[in-house]
Amino acid sequence: MAVESTFSTSLGPAACEKDAKALQFIEEMTRNTDEVQQKVLAEILTRNAETEYLKRYDLAGVTDRETFKSKVPVVTYEDLQPEIQRIANGDRSPILSSHPISEFLTSSGTSAGERKLMPTIKEELNRRQLLYSLLMPVMNLYVPGLDKGKGLYFLFVKSETKTPGGLTARPVLTSYYKSDIFKTRPYDPYNVYTSPNEAILCSDSFQSMYTQMLCGLLQREEVLRVGAVFASGLLRAIRFLQLHWRQLALDIQTGVICDKITDPSIRQVVPNYLQKPNPQLAQFIIDECSSGNWEGIITRMWPNTKYLDVIVTGAMAQYIPTLDYYSGGLPKACTMYASSECYFGLNLKPMCKPSEVRYTIMPNMGYFEFLPHKPSSPATDPNKPSPPRLVDLGDVEIGKEYELVITTYAGLNRYRVGDILRVTGFHNSAPQFQFVRRKNVLLSIDSDKTDEAELQKAVENASKLLKEFETSVVEYTSYADTKTIPGHYVIYWELLMKESSKGPREGVLEQCCLEMEESMNSVYRQCRVADNSIGALEIRVVRSGTFEELMDYAISRGASINQYKVPRCVSFTPIMELLDSRVLSVHFSPSTPTWNPNRRD
Question: Does residue 382 carry a pLDDT above 70?
């Protein structure tokens, strides 16, 4: 029992010697933030000095920050798209990175409706794995005994494609799960999953989910934590249980997996878990699920669960009440902050409340700069505002918001990620950030990110179907409905009909729903078609004058009548209630939109 105190660190008593080393590494990195950042930038600029991109800015081998900032511009994805497209088309010359580009990681962000392609190199896998290796040592500081059980994590691979030049393009987690680092990971008693690799790596989402749920139920007494990447993913798993508990119970009762599971590797490995009939467990599942009461189902099914491991920051915060309902209010741990472009840092107090989540940036992961989101300094020329000066990692100020800008080993230089972060404090000399939101994102259910321009385009395309009925969309707004599983987009339309007797015929507004979905970006359509993580889009037609009432309400609360603009997304309860009380008819998309995993526009 006294073993824990043997491995003391400044963060707290480590669970074992391996944890102590990991915690000491965190302390070393965060105590020397500025020194580590200078070293990282020098390494990146030295190794990539002969790349076409950096030679363009005539650094002449100089690696100091001042020269780098004065010569290399801050860029967006659209700025780099010509170089990225050349690499995708097969150009193997050192364009962005001196190391060969091993694959592209597809971002959940989009450009011109298609996923962004982020170039990466093989060694980045090791860098990502390094951050993963720090998560459990931190968690063990707050939750003892995790080596005495397992984690039920619903993890999935998604579709991948080949670029014209033959490079694989896939999401960052799919890349990680398919890597040898994950597939041949050494046994770690603090990080044992109930799901076999074969289930995680199955590309059929139904078979993967079914097998992971089945194995989780079979090991229900051993489960100490339940998780998924995003909160929405865990809720989809609960919905899956609601739909398929009868078949799962039958498999457990008979000791034979159902015929719907056809993947050979899964059928080969499942007998290791489903070794014999278990009528007692089957009856327990039937009793719990047949009652129709799903409140607290997670702790009823997995009674030893100590916490949920899911991201509930940013757009995922909308799922917190539903997670509380299904889990009986279990703590929700947000452990790390990462993206396709770069892995950034971790939460040093993972058992805090979701509203208090703070991520500590690890300075060894890349070179980080911060663009003030609301610069207060006045511009010298009002017609030509000077761009705000970017701030280094150690120089950010508490309480201020910044947009994250990164320089990576894989060849992104001063790249705007699009995340808005608020500085809340420091751990040693490393700043801690609250994730505020994605820049310009209006609607999000899962990994989808729909901005105002995309929503406007979708409404315009759909409204064309109304022209023959002499009907037009006067105003619209939207919200992401997460009360349904999966969640879905709701669009409020106020229509103007030249003659009410000649309004749209039956079925036309349903086709408008589908046309809006066809107009959405490829990430949204993949979520709808392949991942089943977004439900059918819904249009609610409101009565004439509703949006004028909306304006009156806003003005009554202090809005300026001269500056009032219809909000394109709403979430404030009184506004939702006003809109819903004026609904005349409700319409859903009758089918899924088209999506082709091999399409690259």
Answer: no
